[in-house]
Amino acid sequence: MSVNLSFSWVFGRIFHSGFRYRDRATIIGDILGSVNSDPRGKTKTGIMRSANLSLEQTNKYIDLLLMCGVLKGVDPWKSQEIGRYKLTEKGFRLIKESQLWQFMLENASRTIR
Q: What's the pTM value of the predicted model, to 2 decimals?
């Protein structure tokens, strides 16, 4: 039996939502992974495309991540096509810790089988 442990499984009920296909933790993980993949940062449109979100969802999650201090606007006064978002130190720690938890849980699930 194969177990796929994702970011959302690690944090489970903390980010529980009513989404049918992806929960909030998975969407946040997709956004953080997208922003982390480009050293220059990502535009709002780039985040929207890579995380497969609508503009409304993208705005909601970016606002949440900005308030939590996980993302920062590199040049917020420019237009959405030029202004970029980058991870803060807190964002990098969140990604590292979630990957560590995922690794530990995958190893634990292998030993249980």
A: 0.71
Cα Rg of the chain (Å, integer): 15
Q: Which residues pair with 86 in a beta bridge?
A: 72
| CA distances from residue 17 to 32, 53, 69 in whole angstroms, order as listed | 18, 15, 21
pLDDT tens, residue by residue, 10-54: 454 444 445 567 888 889 989 999 999 999 899 999 999 999 999
Name the one residue in this structure whose structure tokens are 């030993």: 111
Residue with tokens 């849980």: 105
The separation between the first and the last C-alpha atoms of the chain, rounded to the nearest angstrom, is: 8
User: What sign for the dihedral angle of Cα 5, 93, 58, 63?
Assistant: positive
Q: How far apart are CA 77 and CA 27, in angstroms?
A: 26
Q: Which residues pair with 73 in a beta bridge?
A: 85
Q: Where are the domains of the chain?
A: 7-112
Fold of 7-112: Arc Repressor Mutant, subunit A (1.10.10)
pLDDT at 64: 95
